[in-house]
Amino acid sequence: MDGVESLVSQAELARRWRVTPRTVNRRLAFLGIRALRQGRCRCLTLEQAALAERFHQHLSQGKGSSSFNVQEQNLLEPQVIPAQQPTGPIPGPDPQQLAAMAATFLARWAPLPPPVDPLQRSRALAEAADARLVLTTRELTMVLGHGIGGWRNSRHDYGFHFTRHKQQGKILWTVERSPWSTSPDSKPPPAEPHRTSGPFLGRMGQYRI
Q1: pLDDT digit string (tens) for 44-71?
Q2: b or e along 6-26 (b: 16 or more beta carbons within 10 Å of the residue's beta carbon)?
Q3: Is residue 27's pLDDT more than 80?
Q4: Which of 31, 66, 93, 171 is paired with 79 by a 20 to 30 Å CA distance?
Q5: What is the pTM of this model?
Q6: What domains appear along the chain, each with residue ranges and CATH number?
């Protein structure tokens, strides 16, 4: 025999049969089987476990224990069932290892962000200036890529002059190229408030001031 490796625990029989340990004890008592004690484990030899397994199959077929002849079963060629190592709780995966694996997967398969055009803002401002467009605060915010909540008056920035207008309770903006931005020795002109009267029609050449 191979010692402990050739034994089957009662706990394993309970798990295999899906019954309580008390039921296993009653069945073993009926079969006249005395389990061996190995530390905290009560175990059966492979021959005893095979007899207990045949009794379990007999009961699973709906037959009563009275029709199971223990003596005849003992004379049968023992059908040894494979022994299984006592099972214990399987340790779960390391959370840090899972996080590292997830990060590696995302880095490999996540779609790359679209490349950012560094001239996108300058092109949009130049187009608005050349076309003499009138922009709402929301539109100008989208062009600049940031909020302009602190812009209370006209100002110079990004090489352009932004003029603030108020028409019928709405804040509108016009964009002009700043000539001084191309010359390092020149200074920007002071911002002057620009008041408007008359309706805006979408382009600077189409409203009355």
Answers
A1: 888 888 888 888 888 888 888 888 877 7
A2: ebbbbbbbbebbeeeeeebee
A3: yes
A4: 66
A5: 0.35
A6: 3-75 (1.10.1660.10), 120-206 (no CATH)
